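Example record for the data management plan.
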Amino acid sequence: MTSVSDRIEHQEILTLLPHRYPFLLIDAAEDYKAGESIVGLKAVTANEPFFPGHFPGNPVMPGVLMIEAMAQAGAVLMYKTLDVRPDAATVFFMGTDKVRFRSPVRPGMMLRMPVSVTAARHGVFKFKGEVFADGVRAVQAEFSAKAVENL
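Corresponding structural encoding:
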């Protein structure tokens, strides 16, 4: 059964993900379909902790952090709709494939990250995602994650 919700606000994301500042890389999510897809959202601000060093005078969001942001959107989908409870398991990023960096992301841009499930077997979830910065594709990737029972 597929359910659709308009938006997952920041406060709910904090109840689902263990990440906190400065490593929480999504602000909200929308358009999620249970077990199928979600769209992560992030407003990239000039005061992000990575900009002073990446790169001085030419601030660019690191590509690996955009991949992490997509993975966090996938984790929200897992926690919210794929029978993974945050108090019982932690979603761990497993790997990436077919990563392509297309366009730089700079302060002031809004990221929209559509992520969809391509497979789910034996607790491993495979995703396909993209990052659009102000409507321009910046990154595309396939990635996987696994829910691991908490100690």
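Summary line stored alongside the record: The two ends are 31 Å apart (CA to CA).
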